[in-house]
């Protein structure tokens, strides 16, 4: 039996066996993917009376908080029961989680100022628009959040958004259009403030979008082109999380005499608690390197269908670890409640733990959503040596790219990452879990080292000096030199590092000297930004190209990362030109059928032309403690937004299983916001 | 480093004039042989040095060989009795069939008992150059073509762990030994010159030495290692680490040697040599250093294990040797992941290699020190 | 005696100054600075364009005075320390360096001290036993164990213990507390939980010290037992036990106790790697992080503190030795 057929048999057998060993298929009654419409999920309306958590009621009794009806907006956002697979819940309980990035600050409008990722950001930031519910919709469309409704003007050049009325920040100060405009003009557009999206992303038809306040609860965007639909994708988390003006204008030079941008960038340090937020939970305690405690926000502006103020859970405990792996560890030893299972090396461990007697968590795997690929540098600038320059030009030749692609043993890489069917070969384009994926449009370059050698030979690469490596042909600036390619990977993505290491002998077998280096993440980024690299091992975990087209094609001058425009611009290859047209059209297309066509075409162009060299893709999964309710069986790890990270405000635990909260006395009142830096 | 085994109260004996080296050596040797531990250590160190010198000979696989098909193979057993119960004087291994256990999702390798591959001693294997000069392909242990011989298993890229440990020894022991040698050389020269000539040179080097000794070694190594640019090739990093060991380690020996030179400087035989017209360096090398050589060797042997541990810690933290160069510390970096500890524990074996090596050097150094101290008493 | 002390202190002062200079120099060796790291992060995590990132970090460089020449920065740093006790600003943590060190110092010292105390007590006791039962089977065992004790790489040992506890006993490992007890009032249960975590770094860090102390104690005691005054005491008919404990041990223990101040930095150093493995909230992980990100004031301050502690420890040890042992004289 050849190695190849042995592999196939093993894979097939384990596929069958895997089906047997896996837990039951997701229960259709608890699955929501593609089943709902927007109106099933969310609405805004007033109630005659509201209910609140007992601890808040006690505080109202004691005069520390105003009554719940005064804390909620006129028409709170209602999370409807169709989106709750276990129905409405009871108050109380704790959500335990783990994070591995130290909190930087609570000034989330500034780029890079994380609250810790791993779900903490989503707990404290509230955006204009909600992209998360799109996974549940048959016809995905952005959902309202702080903006409760919107209309396009007749000519499509402006978008008027109505904001929720009467909602308050956690310190009781009203949320108004001022906050939204402040976020847009003084963070996003202000060149002195680095923000996740800058003017580039907000330029349509050559003009920078303007935002004006119509009244306290209405704002209007005016665009340079009609109906730029993709603008909604810039209004979600991280991109347009609204910043409290009454806090940060005190540090912003535009508003406060004597303030500097320096001050603004370092405002709201991690120990300055509690921060002002509209999120469901408020950080109240932080021991760096150890733990963060969050408690419910008494001013949270969402309720369930019966008028119960959300969230159901009272407290969140985040253990801080030095690596993301600790989250898996904590899940297994029952000090953490969930995990995103993404690292193939962990699959076995966590699977075995889930199969044990009395295992306290459920584990489910979903489709192939993570892809590892090689990005080849096409950019015209940044090449430091003649060799690098010659290589860039060679990269632009399809035959050369095909040769490289044939040299990769994708099945071998996939199996080395994980022995079973949770990894599989991938040929580039989108990971197969993407809604825009179509296997018929993917051109597979099956492992064929002989073909790779033949193609190299066609291009004139032969081994002239007998050292096993092919040499540059006559006529090239580096004629006679060995064909050397430098491959780089960031040390923080372990799977990419291992894939890179495994490629070295594969390339050597076809005569290419692949030099592989592992560098710290920021160093790799510097190389990318200065276009000082040959090839990079990259990881893709966004299977929605319509939301982030820059990861897949030339959406802006800076994207894709492997073909940036230099000081003298860039020369696009013909298929890239086609992509530009398609992607530009996608920015304005609302018709789902047309969008599908567009991105199908992009997929076809990408794989036919070996735009990137896909290596393998992996399935990912979610593991959740059985105690937590309202977690849909088919909740995706990531689709439009992170899955579990957008659940805590509708999750609940049964009274008998609740973990007792211990920090409810830290729920902030007006007192806690009095003597703060912005109130001086 | 603080030498906590020295009691300050015992007075030093009067130094002898440079005596016939044979009798001192013989005395030292005899005293050394009285300690079993020291001899065990010495033998191990000797074998280890042989191993590193002839690494490719002993390594069943070339460390560069990555095999996607044999990732995380557990340590393979050598068999003498086959599936039918027949005895074979020459050991063999079975072919491995990769698979996944559906119950546990673990990667497993089933033995195909129908395919046997003989294991031979001093047999042909992969090509290499003995001592970097003589091309050959004879190896200590080799398996028939098509078979696999992974006595300690393989790592995440299918590389044979035994071979990795052997090649890793080259780097780990190499950087420690050469670093120690260089620092000893530097220390001896600087210390001797310092003690003999005194003056400004002495004051300055004393101060610098004190300064360096004021820092605990590991944090200092860590801080300086970060200065090695990430763009340097791995071999450059190797030399960088070695230089760091040398440049930061000389004060210990320098202090020793300086003290000895100071005490000998006023002795009669030295003054006599001076009167006879001998120059400084001649006196140092011919008359003084031979009396000190024993201590130099002892300190040298004792600093090697420290440096092996230091390299291990540095590489483990990511600051030392960088892949694709392999050292024991680098190998242990891979041992910190969950799946290693849970499923592939053999990946932790390089830690055992460090332990045994350091132990051996410590035994040896301890024995040497006893021997040299006793002789000079 | 007093003049000796004063002289030693005077001698130590320039050393301390040199230490501060050298620490700062060492931290400055890597090319670039914290802003270089920040630049990369800005682009990666927030999609900032490279040009904008560069402009911003240059601006910040100016703000923080990072673009000034080396000597100027050193001068400002050292004068801030001496006049105000201000060790500078940590870019990673956005807080004054002093705060960070102070916060983590407690636990760091606690581990080091407990490790030292335990290593002294156990080492001395075993050493006494070994010396008084010389060349017996147990003595040989202890000798080998001692060698293993200071030969085992401490990160390897930490890994092994972590493995056994996590997979063998299903315990929570890492940090000083299980998540339930991190932020909680002190109680018996919390104390027990703490002990369950605390013993690991203490054992790992203290092992080498225990082994060394055992060997030293054994060696010293053997030397002392052979000395004339001991033989005299024995001849006088004093019981063996009395001889051993009253006279010999007291003398033999001196060097070990003397080196208490000196042992501290080495224990701290052992802790650096151990706490990286065990994810402890001590100075170790912070130091490593600060080196990698070039958070220079933090890294430099910590490095300097380690050396200063060592120098002061040496000084105290020398003074104590002179005070205690009349035979030793220094000039």
From TrEMBL, chain A:
Give every Solute-binding protein family domain span.
141-553
GO function term, MF aspect, one? peptide transmembrane transporter activity
Q: Which keywords are on file for this protein?
A: Signal, Transport
Q: Which residues form the signal peptide?
A: 1-23
The protein's superkingdom reads Bacteria
Task: Extract the SUPFAM superfamilies matched here.
Answer: Periplasmic binding protein-like II
**Gene Ontology BP annotations:** peptide transport
Q: Which InterPro entries match?
A: SBP_5, SBP_5_dom
Similarity section: Belongs to the bacterial solute-binding protein 5 family.
Protein known as: Solute-binding protein family 5 domain-containing protein
Annotated source species: uncultured Truepera sp
TrEMBL record, chain C:
Question: Which Gene3D superfamilies has this protein been placed in?
Answer: MetI-like (1.10.3720.10)
A single Gene Ontology CC annotation of this entry is:
plasma membrane
Q: Which UniProt keywords apply?
A: Cell membrane, Membrane, Transmembrane, Transmembrane helix, Transport
Q: Which PROSITE patterns match?
A: ABC_TM1 (PS50928)
Where is the protein situated, by its record's location annotation? Cell membrane
Query: Which CDD domains does UniProt cross-reference here?
Result: TM_PBP2 (cd06261)
Task: Determine if Nucleotide-binding is one of this entry's keywords.
Answer: no
One Pfam family named in its UniProt record = BPD_transp_1
What's the domain of life for this entry?
A: Bacteria
Broad class of the protein's primary localization: membrane
Name a single GO biological process.
Answer: transmembrane transport
Annotated ABC transmembrane type-1 domain residues: 105-316
Transmembrane stretches, start-end: 9-27, 105-129, 141-168, 188-208, 256-278, 298-324
Q: Transmembrane as a keyword?
A: yes
**InterPro entries per the UniProt record, alphabetical:** BPD_transp_1_N, MetI-like, MetI-like_sf
**Record's bilayer topology term:** Multi-pass membrane protein
**Family named by the database record:** Belongs to the binding-protein-dependent transport system permease family.
- The name of this protein is ABC transporter, permease protein 1 (Cluster 5, nickel/peptides/opines)
Question: Which organism is this protein's natural source?
Answer: uncultured Truepera sp
């Amino acid at each position: 039996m050849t190695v190849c057929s042995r592999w196939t048999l093993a894979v097939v057998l384990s596929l069958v066996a895997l089906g047997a060993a896996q837990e039951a298929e997701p229960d259709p009654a608890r699955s929501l993917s593609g089943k709902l419409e927007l109106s099933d999920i969310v609405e805004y309306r007033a109630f005659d009376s509201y209910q609140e958590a007992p601890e808040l009621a006690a505080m109202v009794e004691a005069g520390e908080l105003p009554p719940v009806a005064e804390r909620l907006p006129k028409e709170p956002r209602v999370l409807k029961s169709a989106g709750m697979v276990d129905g409405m819940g009871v108050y109380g309980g704790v959500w335990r989680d783990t994070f591995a990035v130290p909190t930087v600050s609570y000034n989330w409008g500034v780029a890079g100022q994380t609250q810790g990722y791993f779900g903490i950001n989503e707990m404290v930031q509230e955006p204009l628009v909600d992209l998360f519910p799109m996974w549940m919709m048959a016809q995905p469309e952005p959902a309202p959040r702080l903006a409760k409704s919107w209309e396009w003007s007749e000519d499509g050049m402006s978008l008027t958004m109505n904001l929720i009325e009467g909602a308050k920040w956690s310190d009781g100060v009203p949320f108004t259009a001022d906050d939204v405009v402040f976020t847009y003009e003084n963070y996003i557009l202000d060149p002195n403030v680095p923000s996740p999206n800058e003017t580039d992303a907000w330029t349509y038809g050559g003009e920078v979008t303007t935002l004006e306040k119509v009244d306290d609860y209405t704002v209007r965007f005016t665009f340079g082109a009609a109906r730029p639909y993709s603008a909604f994708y810039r209004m979600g988390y991280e991109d347009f999380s609204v910043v409290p003006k009454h806090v940060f204008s005190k540090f912003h030079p535009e508003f406060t005499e004597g303030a500097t941008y320096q001050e603004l960038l370092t405002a709201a340090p991690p120990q300055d608690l509690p921060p002002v937020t509209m999120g469901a939970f408020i950080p109240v305690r932080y021991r760096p390197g150890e733990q963060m405690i969050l408690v419910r926000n008494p001013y949270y502006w969402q309720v369930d269908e019966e008028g119960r103020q959300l969230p159901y859970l009272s407290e969140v405990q985040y253990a801080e670890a030095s690596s993301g792996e600790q989250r898996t560890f904590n899940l297994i030893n029952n000090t953490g409640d969930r995990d995103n299972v993404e690292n193939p090396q962990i699959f076995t461990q966590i699977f075995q733990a889930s199969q044990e007697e009395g295992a306290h968590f459920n584990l489910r795997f979903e489709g192939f959503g993570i892809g590892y690929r090689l990005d080849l540098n096409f950019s015209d600038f940044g090449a430091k040596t003649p060799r690098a320059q010659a290589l860039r030009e060679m990269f632009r030749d399809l035959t050369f790219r095909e040769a490289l692609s044939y040299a990769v043993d994708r099945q071998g890489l996939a199996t080395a990452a994980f022995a079973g069917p949770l990894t599989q070969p991938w040929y580039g384009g989108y990971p197969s879990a993407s809604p825009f994926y179509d296997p018929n449009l993917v051109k597979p370059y099956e492992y064929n080292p002989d073909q790779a050698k033949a193609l190299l030979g066609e291009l004139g690469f032969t081994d002239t000096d007998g050292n096993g490596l092919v040499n540059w042909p006559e006529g090239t600036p580096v004629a006679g030199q060995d064909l050397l390619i430098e491959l780089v990977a960031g040390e923080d993505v372990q799977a990419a590092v291992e894939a890179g290491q495994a490629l070295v002998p594969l390339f050597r077998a076809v005569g290419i000297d692949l030099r592989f280096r592992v560098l710290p993440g920021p160093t790799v980024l510097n190389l990318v930004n200065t276009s000082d690299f040959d090839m990079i091992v990259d990881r893709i975990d966004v299977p929605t190209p319509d939301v982030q087209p820059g990861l897949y094609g030339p959406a802006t001058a800076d994207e894709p990362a492997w073909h940036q425009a230099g000081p003298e611009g860039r020369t696009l290859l013909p298929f890239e030109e086609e992509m530009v047209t398609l992607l530009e059209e996608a920015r304005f297309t609302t018709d789902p059928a047309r969008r599908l066509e567009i991105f199908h075409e992009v997929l076809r162009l990408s794989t036919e032309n070996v735009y990137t060299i896909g290596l393998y893709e992996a399935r990912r999964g979610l593991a959740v403690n059985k105690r937590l309710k309202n977690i849909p069986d088919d909740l995706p790890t990531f689709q439009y937004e992170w899955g579990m990270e957008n659940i805590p405000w509708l999750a609940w635990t049964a009274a008998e299983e609740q973990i007792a909260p211990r920090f409810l006395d830290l729920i902030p009142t007006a007192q806690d916001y009095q003597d703060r830096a912005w109130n001086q | 480093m603080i030498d906590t085994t020295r009691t300050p109260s015992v007075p030093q004996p009067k130094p002898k004039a440079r005596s016939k080296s044979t009798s001192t050596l013989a005395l030292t040797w005899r005293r050394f042989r009285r300690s079993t531990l020291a001899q065990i250590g010495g033998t191990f160190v000797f074998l280890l040095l042989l191993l590193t010198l002839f690494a490719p000979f002993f390594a069943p696989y070339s460390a560069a060989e990555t095999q996607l098909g044999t990732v995380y193979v557990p340590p393979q057993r050598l068999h003498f009795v086959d599936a039918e119960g027949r005895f074979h004087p020459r050991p063999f291994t079975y072919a491995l069939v990769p698979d996944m256990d559906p119950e546990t999702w673990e990667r497993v390798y089933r033995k195909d008992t129908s395919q046997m591959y003989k294991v031979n001693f001093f047999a042909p294997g992969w090509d290499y150059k003995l001592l970097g000069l003589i091309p050959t392909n004879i190896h200590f242990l080799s398996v028939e073509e098509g078979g696999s011989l992974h006595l300690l298993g393989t790592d995440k890229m299918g590389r044979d762990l035994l071979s990795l440990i052997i090649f890793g020894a080259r780097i780990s022991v190499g950087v420690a030994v050469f670093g120690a040698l260089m620092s000893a050389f530097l220390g001896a020269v600087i210390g001797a010159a310092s003690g003999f000539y005194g003056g400004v040179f002495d004051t300055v080097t004393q101060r610098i030495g004190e300064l360096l000794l004021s820092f605990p070694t590991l944090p200092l190594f860590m801080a300086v290692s970060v200065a090695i640019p990430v763009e340097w090739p791995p071999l450059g990093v190797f030399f960088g680490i070695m230089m760091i060991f040398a440049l930061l380690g000389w004060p210990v020996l320098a202090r020793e040697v300086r003290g000895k030179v100071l005490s000998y400087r006023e002795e009669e035989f030295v003054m006599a040599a001076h009167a006879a017209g001998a120059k400084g360096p001649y006196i140092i090398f011919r008359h003084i250093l031979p009396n000190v050589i024993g201590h130099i060797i002892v300190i040298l042997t004792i600093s090697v294990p420290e440096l092996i541990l230091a390299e291990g810690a540095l590489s483990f933290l990511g600051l030392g040797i960088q892949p694709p160069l392999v050292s024991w510390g680098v190998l242990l970096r891979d041992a910190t992941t969950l799946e290693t500890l849970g499923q592939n524990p053999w990946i932790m074996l390089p830690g055992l290699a460090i332990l045994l090596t350091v132990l051996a050097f410590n035994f040896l150094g301890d024995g040497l020190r006893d021997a040299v101290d006793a002789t000079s008493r | 005696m007093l003049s000796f002390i004063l002289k030693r202190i005077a001698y130590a002062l320039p050393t301390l100054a040199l230490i501060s200079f050298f620490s700062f120099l060492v931290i400055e060796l890597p090319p670039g600075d914290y802003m270089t790291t920040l630049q990369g992060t800005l682009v990666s995590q927030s999609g900032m364009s490279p040009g904008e990132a560069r402009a911003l970090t240059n601006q910040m460089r100016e703000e923080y005075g990072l673009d000034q020449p080396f000597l100027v920065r050193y001068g400002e740093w050292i004068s801030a320390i001496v006049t105000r006790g201000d060790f500078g600003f940590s870019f990673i943590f956005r807080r004054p360096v002093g705060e960070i060190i102070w916060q983590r110092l407690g636990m760091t010292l606690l581990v080091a001290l407990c490790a030292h105390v335990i290593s002294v007590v156990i080492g001395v006791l075993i050493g006494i036993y070994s010396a008084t039962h010389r060349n017996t089977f147990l003595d040989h065992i202890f000798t080998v164990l001692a060698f293993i004790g200071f030969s085992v790489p401490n990160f390897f040992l930490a890994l092994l213990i972590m493995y056994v506890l996590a997979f063998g006993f299903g315990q929570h490992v890492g940090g000083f507390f299980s998540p339930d007890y991190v932020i909680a009032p002190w109680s018996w249960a919390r104390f027990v939980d703490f002990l369950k975590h605390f013993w690991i770094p203490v054992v790992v860090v203290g092992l080498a010290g225990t082994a060394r102390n055992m060997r030293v104690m054994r060696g010293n005691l053997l030397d002392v037992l052979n000395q004339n005054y001991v033989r005299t005491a024995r001849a006088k008919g004093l019981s063996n036990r009395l001889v051993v404990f009253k006279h010999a041990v007291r003398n033999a223990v001196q060097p070990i106790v003397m080196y208490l101040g000196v042992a501290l930095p080495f224990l701290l150093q052992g802790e650096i790697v151990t706490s990286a493995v065990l994810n402890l909230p001590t100075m170790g992980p912070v130091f490593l992080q600060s080196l990698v990100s070039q958070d220079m004031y933090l890294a430099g301050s910590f490095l300097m503190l380690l050396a200063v502690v060592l120098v002061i420890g040496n000084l105290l040890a020398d003074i104590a030795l002179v005070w205690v042992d009349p035979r030793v004289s220094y000039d």
